Amino acid sequence: MSLVGKRILIAKPGLDGHDVGAKIIALALRDAGAEVIYTGLRKAPEYIARIAVEEDVDAVGLSILSGSHVQLVRETMRCLREAQGGNIKLFVGGTIPQEDAAALLEAGATGIFNASQRIEDVIAEMGRQLAAS
Amino acid sequence: MLSLRWVANLPPAESLHGVLDVSARRRLARDISRLASATARSVLSAPAEPVVPAARRIGFTGPPGVGKSTLVGKLVERRAARGISVAVLAVDPASPYSRGAILGDRIRMDAASNDPRVFMRSVSSRDAQDGMCNNVADILCAMEAHGFSEIVLETVGVGQAEHAVKALVDTVVLLMQPETGDAIQALKAGILEVADIIVISKSDLPGAPKMRETLASTVRFGAQRAVGWRVPVLSVSVDSGQGMVELEEALSAHAVWVETHRDPAQARRRRASYRVQDLFARRLEDQLATLAPAEWELPVAELYARVLSGLALD
Q1: Per the CB < 8 Å rule, is A30 touching B98?
Q2: Is residue A1 part of a domain?
Q3: What is the chain A residue with the closest CA to B101?
Q4: Quick one: which of B117, B201, B206, B263 is 20 to 30 A from A5 by CA?
Q5: A2, A27, A30, A46: which to substitute to probe chain B, counting the most B Cβ within 10 Å?
Q6: Is residue A2 included in any domain, yes or no?
Q7: Which residues of A touch B30 (CB under 8 A)?
Q8: Residues of A in Cβ contact (< 8 Å) with B102
């Protein structure tokens, strides 16, 4: 799946301090041809939304290990809409229990990924959704 | 064909001083994307830009890892705090293998990118040969149209990029890192000549004083001296804040020098020449892509003639 020409923001909201997963995904996306912007650790949803809009990305990928994924996804989605970036796709990855999937989808995330998935599958799913957009 | 009609529309009043509201921010971001992937043809068919007061343009260049983003982040933060609106365009190289890129400059510009007076955008050099992005001149104009006081262009130094920066900005700041043997490399490549201000970054590192001395004695005899500008060589450490005031003073001094000494017609000529060459290089790429395998076997003179006549058909 080629992501050539697609722009994707990889962001870490909230308080957990581990970004190995985020960086692995960032590199895999680059290798699939995407232009990847990475925010670094511990960013507020407002900040993430502002960057997403300024960088005119097609998608934001949130990496969350802290457990507060539902709230952070809701908050990021709200900030994106406020910044006129409501059309930007939102993906979320990290330690996400299966039972939270429905709430995340309802909050506006269109893809939910966790560590048990193969990277190729994650990239392929993001590519599929972005090709459709 | 891509429409670039927006260029002709003056930005709304609320964004004229470089403090962008939500819609203006969104619009500028979109316009930059459009320009970054616009073909040479669609750029040429766009109407002329509106006349807006020119923003002061400052370019930062130097080898990867020298600390450009960190310095730009700090500088922009300081200037925004004094009410100066700044737009930053950071160009990062694309992978020649996947054409993808990691645009990592934002990480180093945290504080600045929270400020309402700042607009920051990272772009990939994609297939541009000189380390710039496609239509970089047009992107800078699009930023300018929103009324920023200053525009910062940050780019990795890859030989030709320095000359492109020179054509596109008013002041070129060249960054060098201590203890990298860069002083001699810079002499070889001739990149010192494009610098209006030289910054020894990470000046808390041990080799900094010696590097500064070498460079200062070198630029004393450089090409810039002939035009009456004495290139300052500054030691700057973003961590300790050392040299930041001196850098800002040097930027102000150079602005005055540009105002009083630089021939604006020559600067315009240089910029126009860069744009035409950039467009032409891409048009030529397109033309070469149309050649059949058999044509590549022709003697070079014949191939050249064929390409030329192909271009003339436009």
Answers
A1: yes
A2: no
A3: A35
A4: B117
A5: A30
A6: no
A7: 56
A8: 26-27, 30, 36, 38
Across residues A18-23, what is the average pLDDT? 85
Residue B216: per-residue pLDDT:
83
B residues 175..234 contacting A (CB < 8 A)? none
Q: Do B29 and A4 touch (CB under 8 A)?
A: no
Which positions 82-111 of B are in contact with A (Cβ < 8 Å)? 94-95, 97-104, 106-107, 110
Q: What is the pLDDT of residue B57?
A: 95
**Interface confidence (ipTM) of the complex:** 0.88
pLDDT of residue A105: 92
Q: Which residue spans of chain B are classified as CATH 3.40.50.300?
A: 5-262
Tokens of B227: 């035009």
CB A61 within 8 A of CB A125: no
Look at A53 and B29 and tell me if their CB atoms are within 8 Å.
yes
Tell me what pLDDT residue B3 has.
39
Q: Does the beta-carbon distance from A37 to B114 stay under 8 Å?
A: no
For residue A102, give how far its alpha carbon lies from the nearest alpha carbon of chain B (Å): 30
Q: What is the mean pLDDT of residues A79-95?
A: 93
From residue B117, how far is each of A127, B79, B86, B190 by CA, in Å? 35, 9, 6, 36
Q: Give the CA distances from residue B132 to residues B90, B94, B126, B168, in Å, rounded to whole numbers and listed in that order.
A: 9, 10, 8, 11
Query: What pLDDT, on a 0 to 100 scale, did the predictor assign at position B14?
Result: 43
Please give the residue range of the domain that contains residue A87.
7-132
- Asked if the structure places residue A80 within a domain, the reply is yes
CATH of B5-262 among 3.40.50.300, 1.25.40.10, 3.40.228.10, 3.10.105.10: 3.40.50.300
B264-289 and B160-168 helices, crossing angle to 10°: 130
Residue B15 has what pLDDT? 44
Structurally, chain A folds into a number of domains equal to 1
Question: pLDDT below 70 — which residues of chain B?
Answer: 1-17, 47-52, 127-131, 157-161, 180-190, 222-226, 314
Answer yes or no: is A92 within a domain: yes
Can you give the pLDDT at residue B113? 77
